[in-house]
Amino acid sequence: MALLTCDHVALGYDGREIVSDLSFTVNTGDYLCIVGENGSGKTTLMKALLGLHRPLRGRIETGDGLRQQQIGYLPQQTDVQRDFPATVKEIVLSGCLGRKGFHPFYTASEKQLAHSAMHMLGICGLAGRCYRELSGGQQQRVLLARALCATQKLLLLDEPVAGLDPKATAEMYELVHTLNKEKRLTVIMISHDLAAALPYASHVLHIGEQLFFGSVDDYRTCFTKGGHLA
Amino acid sequence: MNVLEKISLYFQYSYVQNAFIVGVLVALCSALLGVTLVLKRFSFIGDGLSHVAFGGIAIASVVGLSNNMLLVLPITVISAVLLLRAGQNAKIKGDAAIAMFSVGALACGYLLMNLFSTSANLSGDVCSTLFGSTSILTLSAADVWLCIGLSAVVLLVFVLFYNKIFSVTFDENFAAATGTRTGAYNLLIALLIAAVIVLAMNLVGSLLISALVIFPALSAMRLFKSFKAVTLCSACLSVVCAGVGLLTALLADTPVGSTIVAVDIAVFFVCWIIGAVGRRG
Fold first, then answer.
1. pTM (2 d.p.)
2. In principle, which of A19, A26, A108, B239 could form an S-S bond with A4, CB 3.0–4.6 Å?
């Protein structure tokens, strides 16, 4: 069974429909890139996948033993975070909270999990540093490490390279690629920058005026013919 | 008689001891929650709720309740829940809703007191409710025990849910996506604030409560960079400021509430300078 299935889903706010009749499946090991114009409903779709936003119609189902709470999520940064006094370690550890239920304090195994997530992303040296003093690329790695504490299976990334310089952007793509290939993590990524994201992706979902879902190769053929590829 | 002798003399009186117990506990609780409130951009909720509590006291005094806490606490808790809901509702934005509640309760409270008060010294009553001028020194044993009980609950809940409060404060979307019930925790935070505000009414009066919530947190944020350190520092600063403020007020015969707030403000500027120098050095 597929890891994630969207079946004729319609999304929108206050009765206004932004996306309609959206169907796609994500299998273990896939790297799905969601593209589309501003306001086409990419972030709304991601919130729906996370269970934060109810679809107007249709069903979103998880399979393969994945619960909705086990999806690792890398949100866009908020204003609150830019000025937040917290160390890298505190933030990464908070990724473990979803799995704990009522238990109030972190266990040794959770601390170990946080440590290995930081190790994987090369930010162990930053553990005691303050989040707001890090560079944009480092901050994204911290949030990615937190997401890794929450999931072993599926990562959702909402414009992970927004605001990063070219070098940090390339590093971020490489990092996600490594997680996808070596850790067999399934990745769903929203991206503006089609040209940079496509080489790593296995599937593309284009939402907006034209709906498209398929492999990257199909997307290339389909859209290059029409001359639409960005 | 030197200052130390004077202080030790004062501490033989039970009303001074009571004032200290309540002052320290209230300062501790408000500072702990203050960090979360300031970071969540909720500072004004404290202000709004304190005005609601003023309205509650007005009603209690008009109805003639001997222990006005019994009425003020539920009213403030309900308002906290309503305000939080309003913050999430797009129709009336959070800040407008708070302003509405806040001035509405203040106006109605004063109106009620004027219309129905049986007291001979109305403006004195209003002034002490707003600025808590002397009520901290006239606490009954029941007040003190209520304060100890409520503070214990606030502290216990804060310690037990510390990690979750951090997560919800830092990134509500992530917390919700990974299965933390953020709505419930926001409600919990609102309930704790309501409890702290009702407690703090006795100490600094309803107009100055926000200072007790906001200043220690802001001071601590100038100095420290981890959430834990900021929370602990905020609690320590607040307790020290409350103690120093109370003593100063007793010795210099100044109003208790505004003296404590003045000490808080002074400490904030000291922390601000230390922080600025530290960043440059």
1. 0.86
2. A26
List the structure tokens of B118: 């049986």
- B38: chain A residues, CB-CB within 8 Å: none
Question: Bridge-partner residues for A206, per DSSP?
Answer: A35, A212
Number of domains composing chain B: 1
- Domain, as residue range, for B126: 3-280
User: What tens digit of pLDDT does each residue of B33-87 get?
Assistant: 999 888 887 777 778 888 888 888 888 877 776 667 778 888 888 888 887 766 5
* ipTM for this prediction: 0.86
Tell me the three state secondary structure of residue B7: helix
Q: Hey, are the CB atoms on A104 and B161 less than 8 Å from each other?
A: yes
Contact by Cβ (8 Å): B55, B105: yes
The Cα B191–Cα A46 span in angstroms is 32
CATH number at residue B91: 1.10.3470.10
- Residue B211, classed as helix, strand or coil, is helix
Residue of A nearest to B159 (CA): A104
Q: Report the amino acid identity of residue B3.
A: V
For residue A134, what is the nearest residue in chain B, using CA coordinates?
B225
